[in-house]
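Input record, target 12 of the design panel.
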């Protein structure tokens, strides 16, 4: 009985492995600090799925930018995407925001 469970778990993990390796990460700015007291504390970031033509459309505190880059990784995407609109980081009401 235990061997069936172990084999079942191993098969299930193997079946999920390609999805974990091939899939992209969904990035949400709210997963990082967005607090600020000036625009210099903010960095524009891409939100959404980097493999789905997402653009830099939000901003986070620069203190969390290294973690953001680690979470984003280096996805390998083969899509042709339209250019993104340029945005800048701003501190509005003590929250980092992306503005045109």
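The sequence produced for target 12 reads:
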């Amino acid at each position: 009985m235990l061997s069936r469970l172990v084999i079942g778990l191993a098969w299930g993990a193997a079946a999920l492995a390609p999805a974990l390796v091939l899939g992209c990460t969904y990035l949400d700015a709210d997963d990082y600090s967005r607090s600020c007291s000036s625009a210099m504390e903010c960095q524009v970031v891409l939100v959404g799925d980097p493999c789905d033509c997402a653009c830099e459309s939000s901003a986070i505190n620069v203190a969390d930018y290294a973690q953001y880059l680690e979470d984003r990784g280096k996805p390998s995407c083969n899509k042709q995407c339209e250019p993104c609109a340029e945005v800048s980081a701003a501190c509005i009401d003590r929250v980092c925001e992306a503005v045109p």
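The two ends are 61 Å apart (CA to CA).
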